[in-house]
Amino acid sequence: MIAASVWSLLIPSIEMAESQGKIAWIPASIGFMIGIITLIIVNKIAKKVESKNIDKNQSELNIKDKMKSATMLMLAVTLHNIPEGMAVGVAFAGLTMPNAGLTFAEALALAVGIAIQNIPEGAIISMPLHSSGKGKIKSFIGGTLSGIVEPIGALITIMLTKIVVPILPYLLAFAAGAMIYVVASELIPESQAEEKSNLATIGVAVGFVIMMLLDVALG
Predict the structure, then answer these.
(1) What is the Rg, in whole angstroms, of the alpha carbon atoms belonging to the chain?
(2) For residue 25, what are the CA distances in angstroms to 29, 36, 37?
(3) Total domains in the fold of the chain
(4) pLDDT attached to residue 55
């Protein structure tokens, strides 16, 4: 998720802002911080809802904590998928724009690359859902549904190109902020709470390298 946030979201946000004649780092910085703040607010609301259910035993609380982490993760990846779909929409919408410099092959390559990249991202959601107590089918559906927003985002972008394209750098960075928040506040602390924390750290490093390679190779 960290690698995807950098290579699939923040770097494209900076590059797109620069191509639009904007100060490159401003949309990325603003969108990123809005994404962080939004997830902080969502987390606080979730905690308020949880505080109403105080008569639970410890095992039920542990299950609830896992469900919360899985839900936050699903929300973050879904938010991340929306601007990715919009980026595909921009590529195909560019085919109709004069002097856009885009070809159908380039737009199709971007769509295929993002689609392949979504396979490990779906696993990122399905596996925590399953470990939190959800069945295999429901976990699979949860991972699949997070990706459905991409074609929807692409279609909306194509229909509303003139409106969406100027703010797309902010949306890309917003999704990056949401994903980084979940990693920093939920996933890494939870993994470090285990006895084999070094193994968790190695897992983070290996996951980062794998997603980096996928993003660079398929980007």
Answers:
(1) 18
(2) 6, 17, 18
(3) 1
(4) 46
